[in-house]
Design brief:
By secondary structure, the protein is of the alpha/beta class. The chain has helices at residues 43-52, 70-83, 94-97, 110-113, 119-128, 206-217, 236-246, and strands spanning 6-10, 13-17, 22-28, 31-35, 60-64, 87-89, 141-142, 155-158, 167-171, 176-180, 223-226, 232-233. Bound molecules: zinc ion.
Length: 252
């Protein structure tokens, strides 16, 4: 199956955005870093996006995961296996990526989201994309702290809350923050547009997710590449501020 996407390029970073989830490609000459990989059903879309920016899958030097939910890990797991690519994520996220446990809503939590505007269509769509898949990445490794030795020299920004080991990745050369689900700009089950925390039932630890907005606000980047929703331009301080305001409290 193929899913339509749009690509936004900022510097050496490419934000590939589909209706239900995004991934990021970072270029350094012939080499690429892939950050997240969509749903299991997005594998062909990831491959297509790599070709569209003039590369081949074998150019990918490593895969980074912001977190281990199926909409970010599912495609990455299949790509890592098919092309023998190493996968790194936050230390606290590694057991989640290996599926020692799962911090994701199961069917029992459905009543918490099903009443939301757009939720029924969203559930049908993500089921087709493999949203109920429970595969992990047994070989997932923890990245070392600081700047990572991968194309684009991503800098890990630990942002726990959405999951225990969630990590955003700063791309200093491109002035981009890849925020994963620590800060998004739209979602099928949210009526809001612009920087926001993901809807409450999807956050493992909401208070931690709010505190992680401080880490995002401190990043010196001019463009936000979120895990869901379109690219957003502005300071990370403003992006975090908008999300805080949407939470019903404000800190400067
Ligand atoms: Zn997500």
């Amino acid at each position: 199956m193929t899913t339509p996407y749009s690509i936004t390029r900022i510097g050496d970073a490419y934000h590939v955005s589909t209706e239900h989830v995004n991934w990021v490609l970072v270029e350094d000459g012939h080499d690429l870093t892939l950050i997240d990989g969509g749903y299991p059903g997005n594998v062909e879309d990831v491959e297509r996006s790599v070709r569209e920016i003039g590369h081949q899958m074998r150019d990918i030097r490593g895969i980074l995961l912001t977190h281990a939910h199926v909409d970010h890990l599912g495609g990455a797991a299949r790509i890592a296996a098919a092309y023998d690519i190493d996968v790194w994520t936050g230390e606290a996220e590694v057991p989640h990526a290996r599926r020692d446990h799962l911090q994701q809503l199961g069917p029992a939590a459905l009543p918490m989201v099903i009443w939301r505007h757009g939720a029924v269509g969203w559930l049908l769509d993500i089921t087709k994309l493999g949203g109920t898949d429970r595969d992990g990445i047994p070989e997932a490794q923890a990245y070392d702290a600081g700047r990572l030795d991968l194309p684009g020299s991503p800098v890990a920004v630990p942002t726990p809350g959405h999951t225990d080991g969630h990590t955003a990745f700063h791309l200093p050369g491109s002035g981009v923050l890849v925020s994963g689900d620590a800060l998004i700009t739209a979602h099928a089950v949210s009526r809001k547009h612009g920087p926001q925390l993901i809807v409450r039932p999807f956050s493992h630890d909401r208070d931690a997710a709010r505190r992680s907005l401080d880490a995002i606000a401190a990043v010196d980047a001019a463009t936000l590449f979120p895990g869901h929703g379109p690219v957003w331009t502005g300071t990370m301080r403003d992006a975090a501020g908008q999300a805080r305001a949407g939470e019903g409290f404000w800190r400067p």
